[in-house]
Amino acid sequence: MSILNKIIENSSEINSGFKKHYLTLYAIVGGMEAKRVLEIGGGLSTPVILQALKNTGGELITCDPRDLKGLGLEESIKSENPNWTHMMDLSGNVLDKISGTFDFVLHDGSHEGKVLFKDLRKILPMIKKGGVLLVHDTNHPKLKNLYRATCLALLGFRHSKITLPYGHGLTIVIKK
Length: 176
Hints:
It contains 8 helices and 7 strands, in the order ααβαβααβαβαβαββ. By secondary structure, the chain is of the alpha/beta class.
């Protein structure tokens, strides 16, 4: 089965989480021909991003304190993807260590409003003009503070945004 078929199969499962956004994730990363991608909070989204990056020749940095097993990933993903760096640490620590600009950033890490706000304030200057930021769970009925934290973090940055209303919400931000 091709990776695209796997993505379609996984995204069509009845689930309100990020699985509903796999096709969107794949299409944005591939469509914008991203070369440098940052993922805060790894997991099953990681292979989707890596597959899109195989077509663009891009690299992925994933920040998540969990090991591969904790992310639900096979050990072989490391050897199959030399363009992937997994930084096992909290987002605040990783964001203080990395530099440069990113074409695309996915934030599906901390679900605490204060942490998300701090992360986004560090991330937004690192996103290139025309770059894309995705923030997951911004429409979650139990996490109303995530959308508010996202909006507050965007103050002072020229941007456009839209929130997809399914899969607990996915806010798509384009930095202008």
